[in-house]
Amino acid sequence: MNYHWNWGIFLEQVKGGDETYLNWLLTGFGWTVAVSLSAWVMALALGILLGVLRTVPSRALVAAATAWVELFRNIPLLVQMFLWFFVMPELLPADWGLWVKQEMPAKEFFTATICLGLFTSSRVAEQVRAGIQALPGGQLMAGLAMGLTLPQTYRHVLLPTALRMVVPPLTSEFMNVFKNSSVAFAIGVMELTFQAKQMQEDSEQGIETFLAVTLLYFICAFSANRVMAVIERRTRIPGTAADVAAQS
Amino acid sequence: MHGDFDFSVLVDSLPFLWTGLQFTLKLTAVAMLGGIALGTLLALARLSPIAPLARAASWYVNIMRSIPLVMVILWFFLVIPLITGKPMGAENSALVTFTLFEAAFYCEIMRAGIQSVSRGQVAAGYAMGFTYGQNMRLVILPQAFRNMLPVLLTQTIVLFQDTSLVYAIGAKDLLKAAEVAGKNYNRPVEMVIFAALIYFVMCYSLSFVVKRLQQRFAFKR
Amino acid sequence: MNQVPNSAMIEMRNVSKWYGQFQVLTDCSTRVSKGEVIVVCGPSGSGKSTLIKCVNGLEVFQQGEVIVDGTSVGDPKTDLPRLRAHVGMVFQHFELFPHMTITDNLTIGQIKVLRRSKEEAQEKAARLLDRVGLKQQAHKHPGQLSGGQQQRVAIARALCMDPICMLFDEPTSALDPEMINEVLDVMVELAKEGMTMMCVSHEMGFARKVAHRVIFMDQGRIIEDATRDEFFGTPRSERAQLFLSKILSH
After folding, report:
1. pLDDT at residue C4, as a whole number
2. Which residue has the higher pLDDT, A38 or B84?
3. Which pTM was predicted?
4. Which has the minimum average pLDDT: C2-6, C110-114, C212-216?
5. Is the residue at B122 inside a domain?
6. Residue A233 in contact with partner chain C when CB distance is under 8 A
7. For the segment B96-128, what is each residue's pLDDT rounded down to a tens digit?
8. How many CB atoms within 10 Å of residue B34?
9. Has residue B1 been placed in a domain?
10. What is the DSSP letter of C114?
């Protein structure tokens, strides 16, 4: 293997610019975190709503929520990025489309966030639905028998337990959001993968570049994992199997 | 809506898109078969009593699973030529990358599958005088594979979608073909929609099959 | 036990219910007067749990009429949450809410449905918890209590809503044998106070002690609807005799 190592590359100036490669990577890291976190917030809110709708007694609502999930689950994320970025402006009224294409501020960022958020919402919805359906059927009845309305029963009885149950699968979804945000490079979001490609071409020190970027992705995944672990611990219900296991 | 759509160009570009789809399917098939084979070996390594082997396999799987696929694709595209000393086309690089990457995911499925086979079955195999290899091949793996078939297929749907990420190194798959055709005919929007439609129809049909399979399995137990 | 013969608390007229093609209830009619205690028994799958859930509309029925305290349950215009708020129900598997403390289990309905203040609800909860002998457990979560304790909490939870009648759906059948009596004791006390009760149960000792009438069901039909003495003296149907001999032999 014939490779010229240069670990000092990160502090060198980029070609034709007055910043260092380190600056590039840190900017990329910032965008990655920004896209991922905003998409995750959106995915959680929408995903919980859709997951609930997939379990309600109304056939029309179930069908609509199911269609949503199937639509966003069966098209590759990258293709969805292109759909939002290239196709969406064409479907808007002419002057809106023009505004999106020419004047919208940070349009790559917003497009990527919406796309990743909707994509992830379908996956969150599936987990939430599974969580609700895994509850003993008597819980719904007990809530209703007490005189709670259906929305009240979801809010006070079903969701608090179901959401606790799906924290582990949501942990891997949270980690996936950071990984999936890398696809945003394709529409020009200057996140980590975009910067990795740019720095590799510019500096010709591919291995050092990729190692640094990979490390930053590890940090994202690890932090996401820790945050969810804290949430899981804080919300654990005394007397449940998980609690007993953790105590012993 | 101001876009004046013209889908007539689709018909002319079908042969070209077909060559792209062929590569997408080839990549999916190779990565699936290679990934399951390699993943099964990895699973055996992870469950093996030889600690260094188990640890190495688990490291490999965990690293692959925590890096974005796009980065893995870029890594292999960069590193393979450095090791072999000669450049490798984007398509071949993709075939190697996806096989090695998917192996990590199939490994976890096969591991769960092997662990789903009851201890009684394992003991019964050894009681008949089978060696470890015989017991795995004749008793445990067939059952593990059967139990996990729906999950393996679901992972394959994910794999099929993920192949579109070879865009990062410019390999000519369905999406790339659609992009090129879009440029040639000056109809990029129609082409993206058409590609999305093809992906959707294929994934949706396959996931329908998986759902059926799951129902049949659930019924038999 | 004051019995006013003509004021019906629960009235069921020709109730029939299907799951798809399968008929689970056929033409069931009965009435429960104010202050009456009814025990519903029968082999498993006979439809008794389904019947009792029709009373507060947890199960929908396709034919017939159920009237609770003058309100028709099957009428689409009926405000079901409002009706259910005053019909207490106790389930086979307790169905306490696992993520809430015992006190919160007892107050949530009072606060969210009856719009009581938190203080009022907590005071009521403490009083009823004391009544079922579980004052010490107020701060715990359901998972930290035994089955018998959980079921007593569930009864207290229903009583917090000041129910006009109580429905029990096999309240002791998920309990270990040594815990059954602590729950039955609470139910007996309740019956003696004059609570209107409809209990799906196989506890014949309980039926003998406090029931006014016993209903025997089989295959979705009410086979026998007799006073306690009639039922235990000479059940008219062969099936009820067979059922009784099986259940009383051990």
Report:
1. 45
2. A38
3. 0.88
4. C2-6
5. yes
6. no
7. 999 999 999 999 999 999 999 988 888 888 888
8. 18
9. no
10. S
Determine the angle formed by the axes of helices C147-159 and C118-131, rounding to 10 degrees: 130
CATH number of the domain bearing residue B131: 1.10.3720.10
Architecture of domain A21-241: Orthogonal Bundle (1.10)
B220, pLDDT greater than 70: no
| Number of helices and strands in chain A (H, E) | 13, 0
3-state SS assignment for residue C70: coil
Q: Domain for residue B60, yes or no?
A: yes
Q: Chains touching chain C at 3 or more Cβ pairs under 8 angstroms?
A: A
Q: Is C93 on the interface with A (CB under 8 A)?
A: yes
CA distance A136 to chain C (A): 8
Which tops the pLDDT comparison, A17 or C95? C95
Tokens linked to B85: 């000393």
With 0-12 / 13-18 / 19 or more C-beta atoms within 10 angstroms meaning exposed / middle / buried, residue A21 is buried
Q: Where are the domains of chain A?
A: 21-241
Q: What confidence category does residue B219 fall into, taking pLDDT thresholds of 50, 70 and 90?
A: low
**Interface contact B2-A77, CB threshold 8 A:** no
B96, part of any domain: yes
Q: Report the domain count for chain B.
A: 1
Residue C241 to chain A, least CA–CA distance (Å):
32
Per-residue pLDDT reduced to its tens digit, A1-59: 678 888 888 888 888 788 999 999 999 999 999 999 999 999 999 999 999 999 999 99
Residue A188 has pLDDT above 60, yes or no: yes
Residue carrying structure tokens 């980029």: A14
Q: What is d(CA B148, CA B43) in angstroms, rounded to the nearest whole number?
A: 13
Put simply, the chain C residues between 144 and 173 with a CB less than 8 A from any chain A CB are 144-145, 157-158, 161
Task: Look up the domain containing B41 and give its range.
Answer: 9-217
DSSP state of A84: I
Across the interface, of B71, B193, B204, the residue whose CB is closest to A217 is: B71
d(CA C165, CA B143): 54
Cβ–Cβ pairs < 8 A, chains A and C: 86
C interface test, pick of A146, A155, A167, A247 with most C CB neighbours within 10 Å:
A146
Contact A183 B71 (CB under 8 A): no
Set of chain C residues whose Cβ sits within 8 Å of the Cβ of A156: 97, 108, 112
Mark whether C and B touch (3+ CB pairs within 8 Å): no
B203 at the A interface (CB within 8 A)? yes
Range C157-185 average pLDDT = 95
